[in-house]
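[step 3/7] fold_predict: job queued, chain A
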Amino acid sequence: MFTTASGEEVFIIDGHVHNWDGRKINQKNVHGEQFINCFYAYHSFLSPKEKLWTREKFERYGADQLYRDLFVDGYDDMAIFQPTYLTDFYVDGFNTTEQNALLKAQHPNRFIVNGAFDPRDEEAGLAKFEELVATHKLKGVKLYTAEWKGASRGYKLSDPWTEKYLALAEKLGVRNIHVHKGPTILPLDRDAFDVADVDIAATNFQGLNFIIEHCGLPRLDDFCWTATQETNVYGGLAVALPFIRKQPKYFAHVISQLLMWLGPDKLLYGSDYGIWTPDWLIEDFMAFELPADIGAETGAVLDLEAKKKILGLNAARLYGVDIAAQKRLLRADEVVAVAA
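[step 4/7] structure written:
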């Protein structure tokens, strides 16, 4: 938890974390190597020098390191696992629901586990998805529209089979649909992450919340125009947030546009761990102030109340987290840990 200089506590829900295995032993082919190479390039480009990891650690940091980075050295109170299966690239998958669930079993009050579906599984995958929802009591899924599957190099949210899966998600109470619509990752295709299909899905499924991860970057304008007209479209700040240190003017532009178009109630913090760690991201975000000229031009306000919404309150609302009750549970966990 982050505490301000005045002593006010800010409850933080990290909306975008992973526990991946990018090691050579798990790479199925050259594409698995390309994928983790690209992740490491993002890490190396946007991380502060003192936060750079070795390639070996980056490929497989593991559960203990993850817990320490998020909840001990970092300021996260809770975190949402967003799976990325990539079974065409990795032998055991890159980061699956089942793998993430093992950590939730160890720390049930810290994690929310999201699932996934692939509409290209068509009829055969519907029952499997329903079973996944029941097993893990899912409230959300993460979709990678550019993920490869056999000869297919992606799908759209507007495809007929995707709509069947979204209808089933809505029926099962899986209301939070996180969709990677951001920078491409080698060898995936850039255009398969285009945001053009978001408004169709959002219009057709008013009972679902579409959290567009990475805010559509580098298609910020397209995303903002869509998100302002669709009341159930939200923006995830993973990937946008790390620019706060390396390119603060660019970050100021991005966050001001998002605040102007969407407002602070529709933005969710995400560290994208383990590409970046939440310690420096949250410290920099809490210290960040919009330049006066940008604030005057856009009317955007990034005060403490807005930051509290972005860092935790919005995700708590979407996932039904009672923050006061959650604080009590976490305090009880700390007492048990000390006693042990």
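[step 5/7] annotate
The first strand starts at residue 2 and ends at 3.
Residues 109 and 330 are 7 Å apart (CA to CA).
exit 0
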